[in-house]
Amino acid sequence: MAHIAVFGANGNIGSRIVREALDRGHHVVAVVRDPDSFVASRDAVTVTTGDVLSPDSVAAVGEDVDVVVSAVGGKDGPGHLATIRPAAEALVAGLRSLGGEAPRLVFVGGAGSLRRPDGSRVWDTEGLPEAILQIMHAHGDALEYLRGVEDVRWTNVSPAATIEPGARTGTYRVGKDDLVVDADGNSRISMEDYAVAVLDEIENPRHVRERFTVGD
Ligand SMILES: NC(=O)c1ccc[n+]([C@@H]2O[C@H](COP(=O)([O-])OP(=O)(O)OC[C@H]3O[C@@H](n4cnc5c(N)ncnc54)[C@H](OP(=O)(O)O)[C@@H]3O)[C@@H](O)[C@H]2O)c1
Predict the structure, then answer these.
(1) What is the mean pLDDT of the chain?
(2) N or C: which terminal CB in the chain sees fewer CB atoms within 10 Å?
(3) Is the CB of 179 under 6 A from ligand 1?
């Protein structure tokens, strides 16, 4: 059993990661900004307050766990943008301060920087709304930042181009920097299967200091 802290535990993706971790018997620390907003469904959840943008807060959470998952962001426009790369920096600073025993970091990333089969990047797709483009590039910046970090065991998990609530099939395909697409060229993953991939990586590390992506 691992001790896993999840920043963004209330979120769409974070809540699926919490559920998958609990189903596998791990102990979960749900890190939220407002504890009253978190509905703990199981006894195995410890709820704590934390701000992913504060290295001190990250260090306090990280002290007692094996893995810190960051599933932060959200749909609040500029607030979302302001959270992505600064979160990566604060997470690294906070975990770094814990020294050699620091937990792993698993960072929920974005699909924008992935390569399509024709070699273009997802963020080069014509007609993407400006707000989405900005979020894609913010995730690209966060990934570039993480790629320069050698003293924290980070992993960036980029979803498929489309990630939505759906079924947990328990299966998925993995790519590194190339978008995972199906025979029709579509790239998708359910949030439930994305959470399966995150927990598989936590239990069986294969992508330390790497980005990988998952699609169905
Ligand atoms: N295809 C793709 O590439 C793709 C698609 C979807 C999402 N994503 C990425 O996945 C991540 C999660 O998305 P989501 O849809 O699950 O988001 P969401 O449902 O809006 O949840 C975001 C969570 O972040 C938390 N948060 C925001 N700022 C925080 C802070 N300073 N400290 C602690 N927690 C903070 C929020 O906490 P509160 O509950 O306290 O507000 C919320 O629980 C985002 O980075 C998003 O860009 C990528």
Answers:
(1) 94
(2) N
(3) no
On the question of pLDDT at 18 being above 80, the answer is yes
Question: What's the pLDDT tens digit per position in 100-117?
Answer: 889 999 999 999 999 999
Q: How far is the CA of 107 from the centre of ligand 1 (A)?
A: 11
Residue in 6, 13, 19 to alter for ligand 1 test, most ligand atoms within 8 A of Cβ: 13
In the chain, the number of structural domains is 1
Expressed in angstroms and rounded, the spacing between residue 73 Cα and the centre of ligand 1 is 3
Interval between CA 11 and ligand 1 midpoint (Å): 6
CATH number, residue 169: 3.40.50.720
Nearest CA to ligand 1 atom 40: 33
**If 0-12 CB within 10 Å is exposed, 13-18 middle and 19+ buried, where does residue 185 land?**
exposed
Q: Which of 16-30, 79-93, 112-126 has the lowest mean pLDDT?
A: 79-93
Q: How far apart (Å, rounded) are the C-alpha atoms in residues 206 and 22? A: 21
Q: Range of 89's domain?
A: 3-215
Nearest CA to ligand 1 atom 45: 73
For residue 65, is pLDDT > 90?
Answer: yes
Strands 210-215 and 173-175: antiparallel
